[in-house]
Amino acid sequence: MKKFNQSLGSKFTFLILAISIFTISCTKSKVEPTGPVSNVGKAVVVLNDNSGFDSVFNIIADVSGVGALGGDIGLCDFTLESNSNLNYNYFLTIPYQQGNNTNYFRKTFNINSKQDVALPTKAKTNVLQGFYKPYSNVYTYPSVITNSSAGNTTYKVNFDGDILADIPKRDYSAEPDMGFLFPMLNPITVPGGIKKGFFTYGFKPDNSDPYSFNNFKVKEFTDLFPTSASSPKVLASLFDVSIINKGKPTSKTEDYSYSFDLRSDSFFVHSVFDTTFNGFDPSLGFFKKIVAIPVSSGLTNSGCTKIRHYSVDGKIMSMFFQDITTKKCWSFSFDYATHTLTKGLENALLDYSAEGSDIDIDEYGNVYYSGKAGNGTNANGVSIYRKSISGMVTLVGTDNILKYGTIIKLKYLFGKVYFALTGTISGTNIKQLTIIKQK
Predict the structure, then answer these.
(1) CA-CA distance, 274 to 285, in Å (whole number)?
(2) What residues contact residue 226 under an 8 Å CB cut-off, 6+ apart?
(3) In 3D, which of 34, 35, 17 has the Cα closest to residue 25?
């Protein structure tokens, strides 16, 4: 990925803390600010001509610190709503003698009107490093607090922002995640091969008020899937909660809780039972298998990178797993309404990708990712590729789309690829963040 190397040809004598957001004209790869030009100057053109993509907006900032030190600009997360509101949360880091000062900015930009949009009245503005509930302006950020004493370490996880959930101190950690409806702590495998994790449950959202997701109860699941030397290892897991099948529920007993588990020889979907549920059968253990699919060999015990993706209505969740060692990939799609599990990619490499490639999937398990241009022959160029569940690889847009910048986050939203890139304008401490949309 290439860094910015275009100079603005100007010197600036003071720190600019304000951010200027510019929209672009319909002319391909030409940046035309519609608002007043700030002291930082104009944004740099990042796309090559006829790339098949458009710049949605640019953020440029002088992040000069003490002396010659320069700071950074980054993006926590972004998502798109059906009304073309693009919600995003970015940060600026500026170095001082006593350390770095980081400020976060939560914003909404309407792609059609090319205007900033005010945040909802219930949206929290004290945002930190976190993530959006998909296709919404609901934002949460987790914090993991560790405490070590007498050789023992305990962990406490809080979700804050628009969604509140408090997980008490435990003797192990887990992976904070945001499901389509509820925050989760995905299970981890601790020594001995015992999987542990947490659900949040017991509170029903009001569909007319997306900010009603508060005051969760928490259920801990421990000693799940104890493994022996002869049993398949659980290599990666995701928890989720769905209320698709029940209409409008009235009590926690109507939650549908799921665990999605990738093993060395198979992929399982289980419903997960709370022992306080009516009708719970202790003979089934915590888990009841819904469906399973065999997988081919190729998984190692080194762990997996995991991605989840939802259809817009939340009725389908797809999952992507990439073996950390071999880089081989598997994808699956699960329909909550029919309990149908479909295998996508299996034991597949992402052609022309590189270390640090940004990846997302659609609800069917097709994969979209950044990679080397020229079908892998041009390491100095960047292209976006789509690998279908049939194994076919095609370009998204044209080949070699970027003039400048490094892609930092890529998403597939409403049938199109979006990505964010950042860069440093040569010879300055000016940083640029640009959001790009497939035409």
Answers:
(1) 10
(2) 192, 193, 194
(3) 34
Token digits of residue 86: 């693009």
Q: Tell me the sheet residues that pair with 400.
A: none
**Residue 344: what residue type?**
G
pLDDT in tens, 195-224: 566 665 545 555 567 776 655 556 655 545
- The full DSSP string for 123-192 is --S---S-EEPTTSS-EEEEEEEEEEETTEEEEEEEEEESS-EEEEEESS--EEEE-SSSEEEEEEEETT
| Distance (Å, whole) CA 314 – CA 344 | 19
Contact between 376 and 382 under an 8 Å Cβ cutoff? The reply is no
Question: pTM above 0.70?
Answer: yes
List, edge to edge, every strand of the sheet that includes 406-413: 20-22, 53-62, 430-438, 416-424, 406-413
CA distances from 418 to 104, 122, 138, 241, 316 (A): 21, 27, 19, 27, 20
Q: Cα–Cα–Cα angle for 154, 158, 160, nearest 5°?
A: 165
Is residue 22 a contact partner of residue 34, using CB atoms and an 8 Å limit?
Answer: yes
- DSSP string over 278-307: TT--GGG-SEEEEEEEE--S---SS-EEEE
Specify the amino acid at residue 210. Answer: P
Residue with tokens 């080397």: 372
The per-residue pLDDT for range 406-432, each reduced to its tens digit, is: 999 999 999 999 999 998 888 888 899
Round to the nearest angstrom and report the end-to-end CA distance of the chain. 21
Give the position of tokens 């292209």.
383
∠ Cα 431 7 69 (to 5°): 45
